[in-house]
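Budget justification aside, the reviewers requested a transparent look at the raw inputs and outputs of the sequence design task funded under Objective 1. We therefore reproduce one unedited record. The lines immediately below are the structure tokens for a 155-residue chain.
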């Protein structure tokens, strides 16, 4: 029988900074940083959770949505509006080139981004363009829905 205070080699490996939960968390972070598939949910499909970065700029008469998608093809984008949801999606075709990479940081993938539109936007006149890897969507403002700021007098 072992006494309670005796340490075996296995017990020593589990003690200190590399014990249990810390080791698990460290390995999860390491996998997240260095394993692209794990970073995107570990589903085996890179398209599962990738989101393209977006900037939204407000101008006087319209909103400008800029979706950054370098290396993508214009014809593979879909822009749809259903009720008050603007959907921007990209469907990456199945990869035909089965090259063996020595090192790979870019893995082509599909994505879908949804944006909730409010009454300030005219959904009938939306325009889109794709230049230099940026999909730009122009969302005109509804002048009737824009209410100027006002000051309320305190009695």
């Amino acid at each position: 029988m072992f006494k309670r205070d005796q340490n075996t080699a296995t017990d020593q490996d589990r003690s200190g900074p590399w014990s249990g939960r810390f080791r698990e968390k460290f390995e999860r972070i390491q996998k997240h940083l260095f394993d692209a598939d794990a970073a995107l949910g570990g589903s085996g499909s890179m398209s599962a959770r990738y989101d393209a970065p977006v900037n939204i700029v407000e101008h006087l008469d319209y909103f400008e949505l800029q979706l950054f998608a370098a290396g993508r093809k214009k014809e593979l984008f879909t822009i749809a509006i259903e009720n008050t949801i603007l959907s921007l999606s990209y469907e990456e075709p199945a990869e035909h080139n089965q090259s063996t990479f020595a090192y790979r940081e870019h893995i082509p993938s599909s994505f879908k981004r949804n944006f909730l539109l409010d009454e300030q936007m005219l959904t009938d006149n939306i325009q889109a363009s794709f230049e230099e890897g940026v999909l730009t969507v122009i969302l005109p403002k509804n002048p009737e829905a824009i209410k100027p700021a006002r000051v309320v007098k305190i009695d």
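Residues 1-6, 36-49 have pLDDT under 50 and may be disordered. The chain has two domains: 9-34, 46-96+103-140. Computational costs for records of this kind are itemized in the attached budget.
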